[in-house]
Amino acid sequence: MVPSNILTRVFSIRIGSQQGTGFTIEVDGRQYLITARHILTSTKSASVVEIFHNNDWIKLPFRSISVEPAKVDIAVLALNQQLSDLLPVQLGIKSSFLSQEVFFVGFPYGLSVDGHSLNRGFP
Question: What is the CATH number of domain 4-110?
């Protein structure tokens, strides 16, 4: 089962004509949205990310943070506002075991499940 402190950090996003998944992390007290770099290639002047919320696309300005090497398919977006709660996320492989279940969370091909009432209006 995927814990709620992970689910509430995952968003259906759109930049230009590209749609995908983004998730939030915190570094030094600031929250960032992480997504795939190829989503940014639909437009050279992208400065707005749209987040699907309450059955509508909400536009948020962002500043792209450089990620090296450039061939890595990761984009870091600095937003002017916090998207998700600051719930702790435990990282690492401590207590992991062979054949343990693994979950991929996201919105492939724009697919989602109606869970708006469970996730503060987010799918």
Answer: 2.40.10.10
Cβ-contact 91, 25 below 8 angstroms: no
pLDDT, tens digit (0-9, with 9 covering 90-100), for 25-67: 888 888 899 999 988 876 666 689 999 888 889 999 999 888 8
- CB atoms closer than 10 angstroms to residue 94: 6
Residue 32 main-chain phi, psi, to 5 deg: -125, 150
pTM listed for this prediction: 0.77
42 in helix, strand or coil? helix
HSE at residue 72, side-chain half, CA atoms within 13 A, is: 9
Domain ranges of the chain: 4-110
CB–CB of 40/46 below 8 Å? yes
